[in-house]
Amino acid sequence: MTQNVDVLISAAYTPAYAHPGDAGADLRAAEAFVLAPGDRATVPTGVSIAMPDGYVGFVVPRSGLAARHGITIVNSPGTVDAGYRGEIRVTILNTDSREPFSIAVGDRIAQLILMPVSRARFIPVETLPGSHRGEGGFGSTGHN
To answer: Can you tell me which residues the record assigns to a coiled coil (predicted)?
Structure first.
């Protein structure tokens, strides 16, 4: 399913899918940065979008940057609400303890995934119905 999304570009690059069937469209840096080991920076993309109501954009890390350089997104996934019209900026973190990481203008720094959203109506209750898992939290399934 293809959804048209209005995109305002103040940089040289429009979000684009690298391959047919890709879920995430690449976001590129609109400014150059050097991240020292352990540093983070909020990188502008030069992209603002207008999604229809009922959609959300998730900004997620690029797996290649994470695997090869230890670059991730601090608040992953970053959430872009349908009503937001400002520039998409990506706060990235260099998790490598030894090597700085350079970002040039036009480098792919993250991916944007657009998805439909279901809205919930939250209803206060005295108790919740039971389930097989119950109140088990982190690690409660007993499997690695």
So the answer is: none
